[in-house]
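Notes continue from the previous slide.

Worked example: a multi-chain complex. Inputs as given:
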Amino acid sequence: MSRAKIKLVYRQVIDESCATGFEKAIFQASYDEFLLKSQAYNNQGKFKTFSKTKANDGRANSLHYKLGFSVGHFIAQLNNKIPVIKDNQGNKISFDVANFELIESHIEDISLHKLAINYETRLLPLIEIMGEYLLLADDNLPEHGPVETFVLRMQPDMSIVSYEEINQPHVILSAS
Amino acid sequence: MAAAGPMIVDGCKKDASTKSSSTTSTSSSSTSTSTSGSCIVTADEVEGPYPYVGGESTNPLDRSDVTAGQTGVPLTLSFVVVNANNNCNVISNARVDIWHCNKDGYYSGYANQNSSLGVKSYVGETWLRGYQLTDSTGVAKFTTIYPGWYAGRATHIHIEVYVNGVMKKTTQICFSESTNNVVYASSLYSAHGVNPITNEADSILGNSLTDLANETVALTGSVSEGYSGSYTIGIQL
């Protein structure tokens, strides 16, 4: 019945304009940690921004996952539900893993700190694409009977990052 | 949102000291063991690919017990942070971060880690990572499990030290192979077996035999009772 199994990623960008308590906590905790951990690649604070630090020392790319540890306990409080986006019935979408991404930062100016949390779903059965809407199911589809589905609109910052086509079973018709 | 600067802590003001009677000759290398005053400046080592990261003051990773459900032989480590530039006086409120792999050689927080025991992903988990601020006697104490090992490295634990929000030391410690081997023959570790990389053969630990000796923490205890040890981290303020 499903045409494919897909994996979605929603990218939640957080910067100084953050509004929710969750976003503020993530913003502050990751900035505090940036000030500490970036020193390993930026002796004496020679470079002010993450991008310049990274250009000078590629190992600074490890700050993505280093800073991720500092916000892990906030993400854990989401109970594997993506904030912000909902399906057409208003239900939150479950994610499997959340990856921290440091977009930019500045060791002397927190207002330039910007990051993203990338929420990745597990493989979801994709049943149909209807314009900008995806008809999806949560679980593996049964061979027979009704299927519980949900409808999700494709939107900015949401991507399909994995696509696995499913071969449709051959239907054998027999005449008696 | 208000701007925030580096964490300010009050360090380097205690009079109590842990001094050594060592008269080891001074080395000028910044990455090797050297003496300053009468204590050893801990050698630098690379941080490795799997650093621990702490967080803001309420971060639950600010914890003495970093075990977080991991099984293994209990290990208690006390780190004493001293200022080699100031008569080896202890430093309070220094942040000591540690992280290490579990009994099977995997780190928390990372995906697709390969070992002879299979490919494992522990994204979102933080076990065997933590940090503590040193107390008035300069001590940061951790309860953990004896680390396992992964291919290519001797058994080790990563350490970082921050004072007044400034990184002052990145290093690693190890244990004697005899202790490693006893632990790795015990029931929880035996599936992975003995680490084939010795401390001396390790590519990171000990730029010199003196460094290696100074990075090797003496432990007391047993598999059944657990092990404990103390390690003095000499930094220069």
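Summary box: Helices of chain A lie at 21-37, 50-56, 63-76. The longest helix of chain A spans residues 21-37.
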